[in-house]
Give the backbone structure.
Amino acid sequence: MRPRFGYLLLLATMLYPSFSWSARDVRIHGGDVHFLGQVVNAACVVSADSQNMTVLMGQVRSAMFHGMGDWSQPVPFQLKLEDCNTAVSHNAGVLFTGVSDGKDPQVFEAGYGASAAQGVGLGIFDGAGNLVIPNTRPPWLAPLQEGETILNYSAKYRATDRQILPGEANAQVWFSVVYQ
């Protein structure tokens, strides 16, 4: 038995150097990896697909707005809640926060800087078509479904001035889920 043990020891010793670093290895920094996440004590978790999402509003012609208060066509989007437990909470709503338009506080500011569109804001609507006022409590709470709950919304541009000037109409809006 001894010769067999010696053979295994010799084999292990020969393989070991192939798994270690040698003086000839070249190591170059390739980049960084950031891990973002949270541990929450809530009825659901926000799906990774719904976190940090981008809603593509597309191009809207300035001439389609005929007067203050006119809306563009809606662009739908969804927020998905997963791993919902209805024993913890029965309903959920979404609080949207951000900078409201200076001329129309019912919509969010759209566009920043020198290349920004002027005279338009961005409105968010709930699944029933109700305008969600920026920085205010959700107007309604949806019943949670065990497992997964989908909350439907849409976004529209709104004319906040008589004269619309073309440009970038991006908006930054944050959301928080409110449970009851």
Notes: DSSP finds one helix and nine strands in the chain.
